[in-house]
Specification:
- Helices cover 75% and strands 0% of the residues.
- The radius of gyration is 21 Å and the shape is flat.
- By secondary structure, the chain is mainly α.
- The protein contains 6 helices and no strands.
Length: 165
Amino acid sequence: MTRLVDRYGRTGAAAITSAIWALPMAAWAGSFDLSPIDQTAYPRVALAIGLVMLVAWFALLVWIAKTPVAPRQRRLDLTQMSQSEKRWTLALIAFSAGLIGWLNAAATVDWGPVGPALTSGKVGPILFVAALAVFLGAMLAGIAVSWRKSRRAYVERTGAGTPSA
């Protein structure tokens, strides 16, 4: 744990270790959707694993908080970030979450009825598909802009963009 905290800082280590509970919870959400149809899916098992791992993650957070950190610049250290960098990193996380949600919805929806609905020429399905495309474009553009601005704020904070004399 000390090497992980030293390399990524406390915030980065907490984010990386959050996968131990986030992945089982995602499995629970996916199996919960399938449970009424496919009786072989066991959502309660995935939920129990996710909750146990969430408790384990809380214990890891306590450990991470007590781990000493060598003073140096880190990309995702909230205590070192400028306000601009925090703002753009938060925007990047929000747009990324929106894209993941869009992809999750696109992967779990039956798109069979959309084709005939579009060919019928009705306005509702066309507007719905257009709204989905606009949302996807907005998430991708938001990711690109916030990534660039967050990177620029990091370079300004660390002075990584200026050549040393």
